[in-house]
């Protein structure tokens, strides 16, 4: 029930309205919304396929991606990943709303100065560390 209410509340954010950054808008439209548009539309059908293509176009390789549960964000491996200065890093956090503690860890991470762009997709969160962009946090729905 909570997920349904959150989805309805986030409906205006599904298509990227109000996002000023072209890069973030492209992520929302092509990856989260699954819309095959733009000069180079993504070909994947599932969210994971679209995300993999988007990260590949960014030049992000597997060693620069960390997938972790929100409850484990305080682990040393995550801390070491956050302290790495590479612009191509991507942190994918699952189970954001599984517990109040997990949500608190996610919110602290989204506010961290090293994170420049974060997307709260309810089921998971994605953090980018691109130094050339301004800090932004988006709450949106996504197409699985």
Folded structure, characterized:
- The protein has 144 residues and is α/β, with parallel strands linked by helices.
- 35% of the residues lie in helices and 16% in strands.
- It contains 5 helices and 5 strands.
- The chain has a 5-stranded mixed sheet with strand order 1-2-4-3-5, covered by helices on one side.
- β1, α4 and β2 form a beta-alpha-beta unit.
- The longest helix has 12 residues.
- The protein is globular and about 35 Å long.
- The mean pLDDT is 82.
Summarize the structure.
This protein starts with a helix and ends in a 5-residue tail after the last strand. It has helices spanning 2-9, 22-32, 47-58, 76-83, 100-111, and strands at 65-69, 90-94, 117-120, 124-128, 136-139. Helices cover 35% and strands 16% of the residues.
List the helices and strands and how they pair.
Elements: H1 2-9, H2 22-32, H3 47-58, E1 65-69, H4 76-83, E2 90-94, H5 100-111, E3 117-120, E4 124-128, E5 136-139
Helix pairs in contact: 2-3
